[in-house]
Specification:
The protein is an alpha+beta fold. Helices cover about 45% and strands about 20% of the residues. It contains 31 helices and 23 strands.
Length: about 900
């Protein structure tokens, strides 16, 4: 059970407001002008806080001639305001704040600034001022509005993928032609092209007003002082006289099922989705709503468990299925089932699946199954109570948002736990059965969706599906008992090894242990991630050591590892054994390495070590699972619908990759080359030698316990004492490439992907200069390509570098634009790089970048959890050095200025390979 899970369940569909904790921890109230505020002191992010403005208005409030204005306003909120004339992002960036954004939905719009240092009081005041300006003091400059139109058009273009096209065909029926179906947030081209600044200001005035707004501050703040600042800053905003009503959108019932055939050439496999729209009962009390929320969770889990058991025990007509009862939109839920059948077997698959669901409904919504769910849920309540001071800021933010937007109550953790316990103690199977009967059985509000690339595909008709549904509800069915009782993970003793050599690593406050089998273990104790413990083991070699003919079998191994379970336990038994535990194991065979890993709570460390031991000594494979995997893969390949993306991928491969027997074409011959015995042999070869593995152990596990478990389980893994190195197979074509690929892409799309790579031996300050170049180019492309040219929704600039034998550097620029502007935007990328090389950058720009990097560094060093220490231990094992040493960051950073950055830019770009490939729509 995840922390905060029990609290989060309270976020769904309550109606009352409970006063809670009105003290120095939590402050909540409403100003005379109608603005609501929530302030929460939390120590989850020490010395930092999150700032939110929640607007109870989204796209649904738009008239037809305003379609898209709510989202357009969200964009304009970053283009200039009364207190920040040059734009809020420019101010926040200069202050080292990088985590800020906004989201427009159909029912709400949310602005946020995250991870703000609260030690700087002027910055806290400024962030509050940002929220105030967002609330009603945007400049909405006509010039900036016209510039932003291009950005919005490009965002709209980037969204128009196969999922959007499917949604456009389905939404009119799912939402029964209500505003939910016609307000897609992004808006129409006609409105976005033609609205006037006055029309945008009118919408802004109508709905951005205090009575529809909430300010939420959560973090390491003085709640009382922040409350006073909110009252002073926002209290002066006048209350709106005669405001426009904030109506609630209703979705009409459809008394007969809707039947929709969706056709799109990018749909790769035919499938069926059955959806039932369910209106929430607004008359329920808070306790009844919480009860229903719990029933929903338990129903989903019981269904998931029983359907999975059915699939594992049978050979059904469907290859994939998903089922869930959950949220649709405000005030509405939906039950949905997805099924992908064997080709031509949709009728049989749907009949079998709906009968399986009916079987669960009749025989497994019982007291025994409900008790299992309640028993599994209760420890989560306890954990929530124990860790109430460690709940994430986002949990509280979501709680307060739902209170403001939907009237859900605000409860303390103690109240939450007590309230939930009371409900769970009275919950019965009859409650669960009656809850399902209340929405499942009638024909109202059903939507049947058939999806395929082929418009003539032989799907069942509407009447056939309705008959299959009805017949399933009346079918004579027998209970199928898939119940399992967990057995011990290990039923034998393990003869462990010894720690034969020890070394203190003072620079990391860690230890290095050498085991009697030759394996090395690096150990670091830390409580930074609470009770979590992480373990990883890795060995060099991987698939690079295999002959080309074995690679298909290795690929099968990568897909099937753990699929058949572990030791003598199949996957269902393993799931039963691990039920209630927080252990997440993994095993991987990569190109140049193989590895095992797991993380868990500290009390489960012994079982985690046992699993790692069994990975090496008692893996489990099933020939039946292998044969089924190969059969299914071949069948999918035979019925695969080639899409434009497949065509593009094939052309890209020809441009960038050499011909090699190691690069198999994925076809029937590829799957025919998979061999079960060879797959098992590859596994045993790659995971048989402890001597060639290095293990890393971090987290909240005391030293003596760690040593005991390491000796007992890692020390017991046999060794054959080999030391391997991966083989470097040079498969990428060398040299620069400039190419334009034309494809049958809709919507006049133009994808730019430009990559620079080099293999220089650089000093630490030169490595850091690459980071600065990445930041500077990111800012330039944003200002020019996005803001000035309106040429893209966003430009992504990535940079990386590596040291050692395989030293190398990389910088890539990618974005989407349109065919009209594409060539010019592509040229701008190169022009700005040439300008940087020839003219350099100012010391001021470098100082701004250095400031951001220092703040990012401080954040990293202040939050070093298991993942960070794992990487630090790996770096030490490889180099003998401290990854956090000032010698790699603070000291070289002091050497950087405009001249140094320009020198590195010239050194890198002038000798770099450039792969410049554009994919665009055919004209």
């Amino acid at each position: 059970m995840k922390r905060g899970y029990a609290l989060i369940i309270l976020l769904c569909s309550w109606q009352l407001i409970f006063a809670q904790e009105q003290g120095d921890v939590f402050r909540h109230g409403k100003l005379k002008n109608g603005l609501t505020y929530y302030v929460r002191h939390s120590k989850t992010t020490p010395r930092h806080a999150d700032f939110y403005l929640v607007q109870n208005v989204g796209a649904l409030l738009e008239e037809d001639n305003q379609n898209g204005l709510a989202h357009f306003l969200e964009h304009m909120a970053f283009n200039g305001s009364e207190s920040f004339k040059e734009g809020i992002p420019r101010f926040l960036n200069r202050r080292g704040i990088k985590q800020f954004n906004a989201m427009t939905g159909q029912d709400e719009t949310i602005y946020h600034i995250n991870y703000v240092p609260v030690s700087d009081q002027s910055l806290v005041d400024s962030c509050l001022l940002v929220l105030k300006d967002w609330s009603g003091f945007l400049l909405l400059n006509p010039v900036e509005i016209d510039k932003e139109r291009g950005v919005i058009f490009e965002e709209r273009r980037s969204r128009r993928d196969v999922n959007t096209r499917i949604r456009e065909q389905v939404d009119p029926y799912v939402f029964n032609h209500s505003r939910y179906a016609t307000r897609d947030v992004i808006g129409t081209v006609e409105v976005l092209s033609n609205f006037t600044p006055e029309e945008l200001r009118a919408y802004y005035h109508d709905f951005y007003r205090p009575d529809q707004q909430a300010v939420i501050i959560v973090g390491d703040v003085d709640a009382i002082k922040i409350e006073e600042k909110i009252r002073q800053m926002f209290g002066s905003i006048p209350k709106r006289e005669n405001p426009k009503p904030r109506f609630v959108c209703e979705i009409p019932d459809n008394l007969e099922p809707y039947y929709v055939k969706v056709q799109d050439k990018e749909i790769t496999s035919p499938s069926i989705i059955l959806t039932k729209r369910i209106r929430e009962d607004s008359t329920l009390s808070p306790k009844e709503r919480l009860r229903n929320n719990l029933l929903q969770q338990f129903y989903n889990k019981i269904m998931e468990k029983q359907l999975e058991a059915y699939i594992n025990a049978r050979d059904p007509f469907f290859t994939m299925t998903m089922m869930n009862h959950g949220k649709l939109v405000r005030n509405y839920n939906r039950w949905q089932v997805y099924v992908q059948a064997y080709p031509g077997k949709e009728r049989q698959a749907l009949k079998e699946l709906l009968e399986a669901i009916e079987r669960v409904k009749r025989f497994f919504l019982n007291e025994k199954e409900l008790k299992k769910q309640v028993d599994a849920y209760l420890p989560g309540l306890e954990e929530t109570g124990k860790n109430k001071d460690r709940l994430a800021n986002s949990t509280y933010v979501q709680l307060y948002q739902n209170n403001f937007l939907e009237g859900n109550p605000v409860l303390s953790v103690e109240e939450d736990v007590a309230f939930s316990r009371e409900i769970l103690s009275k919950l019965t199977a009859k409650d669960l059965q009656e809850w399902v009967d209340s929405w499942y059985n009638d024909d109202k509000n059903w939507i049947y969706v058939m999806q395929s690339a082929d418009a003539s595909y032989d799907f069942p008709t509407r009447d056939e599906i309705t008959k299959i549904r009805h017949d399933a509800s009346l079918a004579e069915l027998n209970a199928l008992d898939f119940d399992l009782t967990a057995v011990p993970l290990m039923d034998f003793e393990v003869k462990g090894g010894e720690i034969v050599k020890e070394k203190n690593i003072k620079m990391l406050d860690a230890e290095e242990w050498t085991l009697s089998n030759g394996a090395k273990v690096y150990y670091k104790f830390t409580k930074a991630d609470g009770v979590k413990v992480s373990l990883m083991g890795e060995s060099k070699g991987g698939m690079s050591l295999l002959p080309a003919g074995d690679l298909p079998s290795a690929a099968a191994l990568s897909r099937l590892m753990m699929r058949s379970g572990l030791y003598k336990h199949d996957m269902r038994m393993m799931q039963e054994i691990l039920k209630g535990h927080h252990i997440v194991p993994n095993i991987a065979l990569n190109e140049r390495s193989e590895g095992v890993s797991a993380y868990c709570d500290s009390v489960e460390a012994k079982m985690m070590f046992q699993i790692i031991y069994l990975f090496f000594e008692k893996p489990r494979f099933s020939r039946d699972d292998f044969d089924k995997f190969v059969y299914m893969s071949k069948m999918q390949e035979q019925n695969k619908v080639l899409t434009v993306n497949d065509t593009i991928a094939e052309q890209m491969k020809k441009l960038r990759v050499k011909d090699s027997p190691r690069l198999w074409e994925v076809n029937e011959a590829y799957y025919d080359a998979m061999n079960y015995d060879k797959m098992v042999a590859i596994y045993k070869d790659r995971f048989q030698d402890a001597f060639d593995f290095t293990f890393y152990l971090t987290g909240n596990i005391p030293r003596e316990e760690a040593r005991t478990l390491v000796r007992q389980y890692l020390g017991a893994i046999p060794s054959i004492y080999r030391k391997e190195q991966p083989v470097k197979h040079s498969l990428k074509k060398e040299g620069s490439i400039t190419e334009t690929i034309e494809a049958n892409l809709p919507d006049e799309k133009y994808y730019v992907n430009i990559e620079f790579s080099n293999k220089l031996k650089l000093k630490s300050e030169e490595d850091l200069a690459i980071d600065i170049i990445q930041l500077i180019l990111n800012n330039r492309y944003r200002d020019i390509i996005r803001e000035d040219e309106g040429g893209s929704y966003g430009v992504n600039v990535d940079a990386s570098y590596s040291k050692g034998v395989d030293a190398g550097q990389y910088l890539g620029v990618s974005f989407e634009t349109n065919t009209t502007k594409g060539d010019r935007m592509r040229a701008i990328v190169h022009e700005q790089i040439r300008k940087l090389v020839d003219e350099g950058v100012s010391d001021e720009d470098v100082e701004d970048a250095v400031l951001m990097m220092r703040k990012g560094r401080a954040s990293v060093l202040g939050n070093r959890g298991n993942a960070h220490w794992m990487e630090a231990l790996r770096y030490y094992a490889e180099t003998g050095k401290d990854i956090d040493s000032p010698a790699y960051f603070e000291k070289p950073l002091e050497k950087l200025n405009g001249k140094a950055v320009q020198a590195l830019a010239k050194k890198f770009f002038d000798s770099a390979e450039c792969v410049d490939i554009v994919v665009k729509s055919k004209e």
